[in-house]
Amino acid sequence: MDFKYIVLILCLLLLLFLLYKEIARVNKARLIWRIIASTIAVICFACFIIPIKYKTQLKQNTDEIILISAGTNADSISKLKGNKYALASANFTNYKAIQIPELSYFLATNKNINRLNVYGFGFTNEELKFLNGYDLKFHPSQLPGGIISANWQPKIKTSEQLIVQGIYQNSNSQKVKLFLKGLGNAIDSVIVESKSNKKFSFKNQPKQIGKAVYQLISLQGNDTLAVEPVPFLVTEQAPMKVLILASYPDFEYKFLKKWLFENEYPLAFRSQISKNKYSSDFLNMDGFNMSQINSSSLKKFDVLIIDEEELVAIGANERTAIDNAVNSGMGIVIRVSNPKPATTLSGRFGRFELPATKDKILSLRLKSSNFKFAKLPAEQSLFIKPSLNDQPILVDANGKTLVNSSIKGSGKIVVSSIAATFNWILSGKTNDYTRYWSEVLSSAARKKPDNQSLKISPQFPAVNQKTNIIVDLGSSQKIPTLKIDSINLSPRQNIEIPFQYDAAFWAEKDGWHNLRVNESTEPIYIYKKEDWQALKNQQKINSTAVFVNNQGKSNNENITNNVINEEEVSIWWFFIAFLFVSSYLWYESRILNTK
Is 244 exposed, middle or buried (0-12, 13-18, 19+ CB in 10 A)? Predict the structure, then answer.
């Protein structure tokens, strides 16, 4: 027997019992009112269990639905009339809506639908691909609070800084403290005032080599709002081969030569003794004849360091060989000390002179990362004048350029007007000296071509969600071998780009995973589903808003019909009635019946 019939029978028996008690009572005063009150009480009790529904007619478009995504306000949805459907990512029980497990399948099986009223955070770029041709009206939720934008380098060299940048959106009425934590230590922090957005930029020089996971933690008082992982990989800086051609062995060359040797850089050093007579040293590499520099010898090196005086003194054949080598990819670092350029190669950069500061102290910083060096005891009067096509590397406290760079062919020219960086070592600032020369050499060095490149999407691949792997094999069209841990993947070739392959997988656990592409192994990080939720929600809002703005004007005609909707009477009405009649029965039996 159906449950509702059981309830009705039990309630009818209860009503008969109550009526018998009332009729059998000796005091017959107010009998009719007591019978009415008892009947209403039983009816209300039955309505608590069995919902009362009624049908209403509503004129609406049969080709239009209300689509609820994650982040929708339940109160605002309850006021809307019409067909309501909820995506699987939304808690559809809060909205009394029909759940859609798969949006693309639902739309494919309901061809009449061409208009979607979307509420909540909206869709990802992957989901929006299935909505081309549909007329979307987007009603975004309140902007999410937290980190709504973040970026950092997934892989850095030991000489590079980790730079974590982004935007924090504080929608609360209290200020939030955001800080970067690495290996158990707080590295840097920033305060975000209430009801405001703030950009943040944290920098750190990791000491370890290999995989690491830092954390971005947001605190409000003693409450932890979010802990977001920041995974990255630190790899060793591959020693580049360096050639130094010196007009004379000054202290700058002496200390640089020692530093390159101690850091295991392959180095060939040639210093002029007299005209056409040189002394040569070979450190961490085999020797060769350096009396005449030619294209063949320059192919062995990634960077050439030379002062402008030596660039003038060498023969025309050597200058031509150097020029051709730079065009072919070799980097060159030119030390300059005169306000007027002496060669065509160094003359690409303008210069100007200013009186040296009285304290003879230089305050320097890297232009790209804003890293500030320790004070350098040096007298500096010569500066570089950068052009629009240049990329300054090092500037002083006032923004004047001291180290500049420019592209030439496939290579790079770096020019420096700093004469005495060795003063950092003399004053005990070895780390600053190391940072300076690592930055200069890596900026100028010959770029090694990558045989293959790897791209992972989405930005934050999560557990039990689809992760796409795109492999670019360069000139090779051989089918790659792809393997995640112990799972073999099936690569699919791009029809338009034959050397590009893609594959998909669904990770079962978070953390680091090893992706093997042919003979190389790349670690990739899989996030938990709850990681970076504010950022993901903001990306959905942005993507959906852009999609709606870019969609063409709809040509679909409105088809309006009378749609019958089934509504449910709120049980609160029955509760109020039940409470009223129960109070009357109690009052009548306890107060009126005793008079």
Answer: buried
**CATH match of 285-444 with 1.10.10.60:** no
Q: At residue 181, does pLDDT exceed 90?
A: yes
Looking at per-residue pLDDT, the higher value among 459 and 50 belongs to 459
pLDDT tens-digit readout, 351-361: 998 887 777 78
Give the span between the Cα atoms of 452 and 499, in whole angstroms. Answer: 10
Same fold, 146-236 and 285-444: no
What are the domain boundaries of the chain?
3-55+570-594, 57-142, 146-236, 285-444, 453-526
Tell me how far CA of residue 312 lies from CA of 247, 308, 309, 385, 418, in angstroms. 9, 6, 5, 21, 19
**453-526: CATH, from 2.40.50.150, 3.40.50.10710, 3.40.50.1980, 2.60.40.10:** 2.60.40.10
Q: Find residue 516's DSSP bridge partners.
A: 483, 521
CB 370 within 8 A of CB 439: no
pLDDT band at 203 (very low <50, low <70, confident <90, very high): confident
pLDDT surpasses 70 at 564: no
For residue 191, the number of C-alpha atoms closer than 13 Å in the C-beta half-sphere is: 5
Distances in Å between the Cα of 220 and the Cα atoms of 170, 172, 192, 259 are 10, 9, 10, 47
pLDDT (mean) for 527-554: 88
* Class of domain 146-236 as given by CATH: mainly beta
Work out the number of other CB atoms within 10 angstroms of the CB of residue 294. Answer: 15
> Would you say residue 263 has pLDDT above 60?
yes
Whole-angstrom distance, CA of residue 192 vs CA of residue 177: 6
Task: Over range 384-410, report the average pLDDT.
Answer: 91
**CA-angle at 408, arms to 449 and 161, nearest 5°:** 60
Instruction: Specify the pairing of strand 98-100 against strand 84-87.
Output: parallel
User: What local confidence, expressed as pLDDT, does residue 343 receive?
Assistant: 84
